[in-house]
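Researcher: Please predict.
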Amino acid sequence: SWQSLAPPCHAWTPMTTVELSFDPLLRTVAIAIAILSTFVGSDLMHRIHASSGMKQLAWFASATLTLAAGVYSTPLIGVLSYQLSKPPGFDSNITILAGAVSLLGSAASLVMVRHAGAGIFRAFLSGLIFAGTIISVQQMTISSLRVDGAPSFQPVMMLLAGVIGGAVAVPGFV
């Protein structure tokens, strides 16, 4: 029967819903980091076009690291801004994976626009990759959180962050 396919009852425990408040200063810092890292990463990306050889590779690496640092740190700071009853803990494997995804996603979005005159279509694709990276890293960060009453997946907020991040990045990638 279909019941034999279901996991045992003890495998699923419902999350408790709690009212969460947050530190507005930390939220502001997270937003500022997101904006600044995108701006600086886009500026560094334009330096790729003006250089060649090892300098071009160095600018590419700098732009990738800048974008990845912003994508990686923004949701972590956002989570830390929640005023929880206990200090939050993170699953180290998922947190490391989120860092790798932020690096790979940032690099992939820059690869799309690494040549001068890449065009609006490539910039749009790059923005989509960047938005997907933002959403993925946010979800991994929330999944890695280990504390009772932790914030849960909020699809509208995740999608909004990805759309805003991708939309902000596209003009910088053109």
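Model: The two ends are 56 Å apart (CA to CA).
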